[in-house]
Amino acid sequence: MTDTATTGRALPHPEREQIRLESVLHALSDPMRLQIVRELAAEEAELTCSQFDLPVTKSTTTHHFRVLRESGVIRQVYRGTAKMNGLRRDDLEGLFPGLLDSLLAAADRQADRIGDSR
Questions:
Q1: Is there a smaller number of Cβ atoms within 10 Å at the N or the C end of the chain?
Q2: DSSP 3-state helix, strand, coil percentages of the chain (rounded to 5)?
């Protein structure tokens, strides 16, 4: 499925039925991508790519967002010139009940344990 924004640009997203557990787990296995998902979950709103303060280059950040989008973890849509990112919580919960909340809770516990405030 693709979303067409007001500018006519569309980004490819897997349909809900196409989302695979191994792709989701792979996407969330990277610390930067997990940080992005944690921030989206905490905000419970769409965020632009520039709202994330990641300690990597712009091209690496773009790669991380693409992996998350192609795995079905996030949805990206253009609104004007801004690329908005939203967590596909409903799709993930419908396919893998409790998985996202369990992973986010585990990430929070790990951050507390190792002193990482992200």
A1: N
A2: 55, 15, 30
10-residue mean pLDDT profile of the chain (118 residues): values are 51 94 96 95 89 88 95 94 94 97 94 76
First CA to last CA across the chain, in angstroms? 32
Does residue 70 sit in helix, strand or coil?
helix
**pTM: predicted TM-score of the whole model, two decimal places:** 0.86
One-letter identity of residue 87: L
Task: Give residue 96's identity as a one-letter amino acid code.
Answer: F
Burial class for 53, CB neighbours closer than 10 Å (0-12, 13-18, 19+) = exposed
Domains and CATH numbers, the chain: 2-103 (1.10.10.10)
